[in-house]
Amino acid sequence: MRITFLAFLMLSLFSCDLAFRKNDERINALNAMQQTDVDFAQMAEEKGFRKAFMEYMEEEAILLRDNHMPIIGADAVQYISSINDSSFKISWEPQGGDVAASGDMGFTYGLYQLKTETEEQRGTYITIWRKQEDGKWKYALDAGTQGLEQPEE
Fewer CB atoms < 10 Å away: N or C end of the chain? Predict the structure, then answer.
């Protein structure tokens, strides 16, 4: 009886340890993915929209944009490449996100702001991220909606 209890106790502790390690891996993946979104936003502010979106895009990425059908893969690359980003600045701030239990796919969401010389646009975004074979995170899907009211000054 005592041996059965000890075996059960050891198995339970081992299982708990695996669950905690798995949870730590998931939390580490979530932190890395969220940091990638912060780095992505910083690159867009410092080096421009086009360079940042090309750098963080996976090969078959999907863009969801106003007045467009989904833009996928090579068409997404062409769409981003054709944007003249010298006439506007974009910035965004992640508000949250989550990652799959496997730690290889997740999403971030937040608020963005786009400024031109004559207008300012605010909205929300969601980005779906996939962990690449080299361990880096790239976006698989990016979507934004415009229409948030401007803050009162």
Answer: C
